[in-house]
Amino acid sequence: MNLLPLIILLACFIIGLPIGFSLIISVIFYFAQEPYLSMTVIVQRMVSSAESVSLMAIPFFVTAGAIMNYSGISSKLMALAEALVGHMTGGLGQVNVLLSTLMGGVSGSGAADAAMECKLLVPEMEKRGYDSGFSAAVTAASACITPIIPPSVALVVFAFVCGVPTGKLLCAGYLPGILLCLCQMLIVHRISRKKGFAPSREKIASRAEIFKLVIDGIWALFLPFGLILGLRIGVFNATEGGALMCIYSFVVGLFVYKELKIRDIPRIIKDAVLSTASVMIILCAANVFSYYLSWERIPAQLS
Question: Under a CB-based contact definition with an 8 Å cutoff, are residues 68 and 175 in contact?
């Protein structure tokens, strides 16, 4: 009976049940029949795992990313990415990868990045002759870069769970994120040459054009550096930095780019709540499952 949750968890994964629900369902039967525990343990462990100030950074980061999708910051970064790499083979594929890298320094959420690129880039890629499978694969793969480059929701969770300094961990994400970007751009180049995908622009952008686009996107490009600088010198912690990101994004979108509308706020809140919930339910359910593993000393029994 002590291995039944593992079997149920595997079955849930096979049938495609979401991870958070799979973790909870797998331990329900165990806690229901365990004489020294009760079903209330599930709720207690889920609530206790969410009682952390550090985890407040997650909804703030996600909300900031949602605001950016409506504030014009994403479109500014896309224009800059196309100017930099649009002349390469497989131009829009290269733009897709570079945009995910730039969005990694802004939104911190791979889900938010993938959702944004599905709306902005994938339809345009298909319109220009890219097949849907390639467009979807590039979007999904490049979205993996976003959680690595700070600010990152995943790194904040890791720092909380492992008790490591958030600022140092975020700084360590730049190098692997950039290397992953370069590798994916190389793969896109090779596949695009075989399939004959043309560049999205005829020639490389001039220095004046790139400089103008950098100036236009400077408000977005400043965000990750301002966050890391503030964390490193101790001006604020990750949670406070996330709150400042929300305020900064809102002000830039409303008063600088003037693309954010008051009527967009309900949709921003909805997107932020759904994205935050998907992360938190996995985190809370994993805490319950880890309690079961500790109670049964599963690692020790299997070793």
Answer: no
Tell me how far apart the alpha carbons of residues 179 and 232 are, in angstroms, rounded to a whole number: 23
CA distances from 90 to 125, 177, 189, 204, 213 (A): 10, 21, 6, 14, 21
Residue ranges of alpha helices (H) inside 2-56 are 4-15, 19-33, 40-49
CA distances from 95 to 56, 83, 84, 141, 174 (A): 32, 9, 8, 13, 19
The DSSP symbol for 149 reads S
Please tell me the distance from the alpha carbon of residue 168 to that of residue 188, in angstroms, as a whole number: 31
Q: For residues 15 and 18, what is the distance between their CA atoms, to the nearest angstrom?
A: 9
What are the tens digits of pLDDT across the range 201-224?
A: 878 888 888 888 888 878 877 776
- pTM of the predicted model as reported, rounded to 2 decimal places: 0.68
- For residues 253 and 260, the answer to whether their CB atoms sit within 8 Å is yes
CA distances for 155 relative to 51, 147, 165, 172, 216, angstroms? 18, 7, 10, 10, 29
- What is the full DSSP assignment across 187-237? HHHHHHHHHTPPPSSSSPPPHHHHHHHHHHTHHHHHHHHHHHHHHHHTS--
CB distance 93 to 193 below 8 Å: no
What's phi and psi for 235, nearest 5 deg?
-70, -35
Note the pLDDT tens digit of each residue in 256-303. 888 888 888 898 888 888 878 887 888 888 888 888 888 777 765 554
